[in-house]
Specification:
4 copies of one chain form a homotetramer.
Chain A: E1 7-13, H1 17-32, E2 38-45, H2 49-59, E3 63-65, H3 68-73, E4 79-82, H4 89-98, E5 102-106, H5 113-128, E6 133-136, H6 143-153, E7 160-168, H7 185-188, H8 192-208, E8 212-220, E9 225-229, E10 244-250, E11 256-263, E12 268-274, E13 283-290, E14 293-298, E15 304-309, E16 319-323, H9 346-361, H10 369-388, E17 392-393
Helix pairs in contact in A: 1-9, 4-5, 5-10, 6-8, 8-10
């Protein structure tokens, strides 16, 4: 048993959008959840000393640093939380694991399958030494999503026939929206596919408890060139805003992705991810149709899960708008009374809770790096399928 | 037993908006429902011979007339369907009943309680001679409303605590919308209160099976004067459209009404009727909260009833969006497959079905003139309450 | 110019579900719309004399017949309305067109591309003789759909990037739901794909004004065998209900279809059609995302079109819930005041209006047989793609 | 100008539900907003030393105390944040103001008008010494509510005709739900009226910028006796949960309230507050109808404001579902990208931001104690009206 008074000293690498969200989670979790260990926000790492120091002050980290290697080498760091762009994940995560640090790595796990495989191998080795690794698919920890998973696990949906999932945003629908690192294949790995498609791949597999086995898909870049942002750096909000310059550069990632998939259990999947769905801001929409019931979720109304029970009397059957804010719903008991909604950042807090609990309990947190690798394999299969215009199989994990 | 091949010869008085809707119902009912008697559309009556003849041709009536008294006196007329403004209801209905004709009278039953009482007395006398009278609260016959009533009757809602009802329109929110007979107290009796408030009074009492016993209310006329319409007559669409003239006349009815009420069973009622709810076109909204469940309806999504079952597991409890288009729902089996919605006019068709069935079966159709009188008493109580700023009791029926 | 008092004598072949809907349209259109010619419901044709006679009486046709060839040969028939299963469309339609009759043919146009080509050739020849042919994609004539098409045509949506369309039903989600002709490839041609997928193929092309040029797709039959219905015939409601027998037969059509598509303008399409979406009754869902705006429609709330205008101030931008019941919306002026919803059958009435108008005006009604052929080509491409697991091109029309 | 590095040392009195929410706000505000002064969470006060110490540790306060008078007397306390039941507000707030402490007081301001008047007088005197007082109507600071207020202020709604507001909960719909201090008039002052009705009174006045001038209302207690909770104290979650004992006690507050109101500008108001709306968890619903537009809000979908603009083309007019998560919306720029929803607690964080800013700027925070007094006068008028069954005027402030 872990001593409840024990501390976990955390280093966070990167302090942009994700670093901000992770910081709020590290700060908040201990105040709402009885954690088996106390996370200490020890150090934040950034490329620029001044900006890192500013981030430390603003986000609540005791120290700042510009050298992640040095930080990872410190004896007084227990957990490394990686919030940098995808091209740096593998190097940092593997080094951290080898240094015996527990790792939380933002999604997608890496920019390539090869990197993800190396990371997973490192996580497997680290596990044997009691070191834990987790990939940050935080949307799993939205209560309504947790409830969806639970209802499937309880058999309330029956045999799953259909999974349809869309992740719709519109922040570059305007062809004059500026370039950012998120539109650069070197940094971001992929575009809508990896940035947001990865989430619905993970979520549908999580909810259904079933893996994608094959797919045929397609990527599209609608706007091939864009103006450079006046200033853009990895530490910025990632092109979510910014003024445009007159010079233009190429968009090297996909603007949108779509694919048909088969799940292990035989369900048909239809997926879509785009940053061009005008008017949709963060619409993560998932529907599951089974022989006994159906589920529907849309992050734009994130505290709600819709559920149809085919066994209800025909007279009163209908999709139920479950406001997933009851104390019986996942994570909710720690928060507010029914109907007092949670927000985007709460999923990150729940992630901290689950990670800290797993570390303290000596169990493997979920989703694992292997889960992240499998998502990466799906992403790669979509790319290959788009290039070759063929169906692709996903290797069994 | 009525001979199924027997005919009911119908005369319709008035051929404006309501006459149009009633005609569609008389034409359509025999094609979807197995009626115990066959309605024949014998004659339509209007004030102007040319327009009445045109209406007969357009709406499918065999003949036209300008003299309702003459029509009522005819031996070959069995049913009189009254679609004229409220100030004429009493005279026509009483004469028709005395002449031994079954009567369907549009709502509100009359413009005053005294008229409604006289009509109800006439209906009572006629009943003893096998003559039937019905008032046209057609919204009762929207399937989702019928289902609401059924769920209450089945005990699924438990003890009713709250009834909230709104009938929201916006067709005179513009102060320059022209005068019409519907804004003239002489013709229309009242404004939003009687025209649309009457519907939600009837519907809430129908759904709950409980009468309003007391109330305190308030009427308001926001716009006291309006331009005359270029041409306006009782036979027109009643000011729902039309061009305005430069001359102005007084609005003598209420633009909006609101009242608090008590139902016989102790439920608290809150009512509102207005033609000034910008953006709401025909929003008949009714909610019922009981100890075991709740119901919610909005005519702007008229094929849907929302239902909350408090006995559902907390994990999956939520308002169910019941699409009331299943064959088990009231009236629906005669129509289309599930999910193929019905429209506004279907309630009128169902009204014909129920009236013809009652006449053929020798039973009293519902809602009766007594029901119409009771609604009139509620309307009158709102007016008195508004004038005197006091609570008013409704006499028990 | 056609004489407004002229008649069009109509023969309807088939009197099941579609015959019922078409009959209501033929009966109703003249009462709400000023038609340039008067449709007479002359004769209904069915395989069984007794049932056809019953249908004539119930549906309002003057006569009945069991011999469509004889009916088509009659001089006093002007229009042939084909409501039979798809395997009979080609023979009847071609014969009718050759006999100089205007033809309205239910969708899908045929069960094979070859049949559809022959029908289109016949329609082309007939056109030169002033004979008109139309295929019955009635959902185009739902006002909210007509409005969607109009908003695209007005440029309000801009360059279209995404089209996602689903037609979701659940009437055979239960593996014990009985076989019907709709599950028999010989009669129905295909399953969900042709029965309902055809509608969303047509609707998305209609709304966007752009054709599908290539696709990759997949068909699935989840339940391979089902009990025979106790009795089933082409004249029944098509397996939408019925009791099951103990004997079982094979399901020879698809239960569900999904495909990715490209539109001529470069938009990405994602399509799905299924009868296994538990809880979805008739959910025709279409979303279009363009550079200037987006549209969303769901037939389960059929009077509503959602519209996002990207040019709105950011402060007040949001999807607008347009209740498409204003007099400015397509077809609506003929009906009821705003907010008084229309139903499923109104699309059929509008179809009659447009067909009669085109015949009287001597213009080609839309959608044409060529449009129906093109949809058939898309359906065939999905089948081939599913068989070969390759992308398929649609020949330009 | 306040030194940005200056500190505001805060003492919080009470650590139950509201104390928990306030603590999260004090902890969080400095990390997302550039505050002109730094709040230090100095001390939390509770009646029980052990529980207060536990609360301090859990909620992040440096110290705990059981003596609020002693705390208020301390020189090193700048702000007193009052989160206790209403019967204690006056004594603590007045003492704190007299001691020169800025005060944030939870709503309702007091349990009686007399207390609220005394508090307002104390606030007025304190203001002259530069001491600030604010009442905690936090829902004003939900971004969608702030946006509603802004749209009215910008004239987008025009002359307001109707205000309808409901605050619906269901946590005591079960007659066996136990007693808590919230059902005890001594402690809570009133029931649904003061606890939740107060919020919609404040919100509608805030959004419309107009005061309620008269009303007629009614209170009801449906369940007169309830079982005592096994244990209940002011520090508990206030009866929102708990096991029931066999002994029963009287419910001395209202279960539900409803009233009709007039706003200064002539708008008709209809209000309802209840804890018996089965299935409604925290439904704060507000609609405003004006001559140029309408607004609708429901806290159960708290990131959304619906807005109808009557000046839109009829073709595309409809209620807009504004997801109030754009950077142009109130408070949002500090948080996440569009579509990443905020939760219940964010309003409290915004309250801290506004209070700290006002203190630092030397301006009066809003809502003031005078605003709280006015709400208290409305609450008192509802009670008097319910007792006397008469309309009541609200004194002008």
């Amino acid at each position: 048993m872990t001593d409840p008074s024990s501390s976990l000293r955390v280093a966070m690498i990167g302090h942009a959008f994700m670093g901000n969200a992770h910081s709020q989670a590290w700060r908040t979790a201990p105040h709402f959840f009885a954690l088996p260990a106390h996370p200490e926000m020890a150090v934040v790492v950034g490329r620029d000393a001044g900006r890192a120091a500013e981030a430390a002050a603003r986000l609540g980290w005791a120290e700042s640093s510009t050298d992640w290697r040095e930080v990872i080498a410190r004896d007084d760091i227990d957990v490394v939380d990686i919030c940098t762009p995808g091209d740096t994940h593998a190097e940092i995560a593997i080094a951290a694991l080898e240094a015996g640090k527990h790792v939380l790595c933002e999604k997608p796990l890496a920019n390539t399958v090869a990197e993800a495989e190396a990371m997973t191998a490192a996580a497997d080795q680290a596990r044997s030494r009691g070191v834990r690794a987790m990939v940050g698919f935080t949307y799993r920890r939205v209560p309504a999503i947790g409830l969806a998973r639970q209802l499937v696990a309880e058999g309330r949906v029956g045999d799953i026939r259909h999974v349809r999932a869309q992740y719709l945003q519109d922040w570059i629908a305007d062809p004059e929206a500026p370039l950012s690192w998120r539109l650069d294949k070197e940094r971001a790995g992929s575009g809508a596919l990896g940035d947001i498609g990865a989430h619905v791949i993970d979520l549908t597999q999580f909810i259904t408890g079933s893996r994608i086995t094959e797919l045929t898909g397609r990527l599209e870049t609608f706007v091939k060139e864009r103006p450079y942002a006046e200033s853009h750096s990895a530490g910025s909000l990632g092109g979510l805003s910014g003024t445009a310059s007159t010079e233009r550069g190429p968009v090297t990632v996909d603007d949108a992705a779509s694919f048909l998939a088969t799940f292990a259990g035989g369900a048909m999947g239809v997926f879509e991810a785009t940053r061009f769905a005008t008017g949709r801001k963060n619409a993560i929409r998932i529907e599951v149709n089974g022989s006994l019931g159906s589920l529907a979720f849309d992050f734009e109304d994130m505290n709600v899960l819709e559920y149809f029970d085919a066994r209800d009397d025909a007279e009163v059957a209908g999709f139920r708008r479950i406001i997933a804010t009851e104390s019986v719903h996942p994570y909710v008991a720690a928060w507010w009374p029914p109907g007092h909604g949670l927000g985007y950042e709460h999923g990150f807090t729940h992630q901290v809770v689950d990670l800290v609990t797993a570390i303290a309990d000596g169990t493997d947190p979920s989703p694992s790096f292997a889960d992240g690798l499998q998502v990466q394999q799906v992403l790669a299969a979509v790319e290959t399928s788009s290039d070759t215009r063929t169906w692709q199989e996903i290797p069994p994990s």
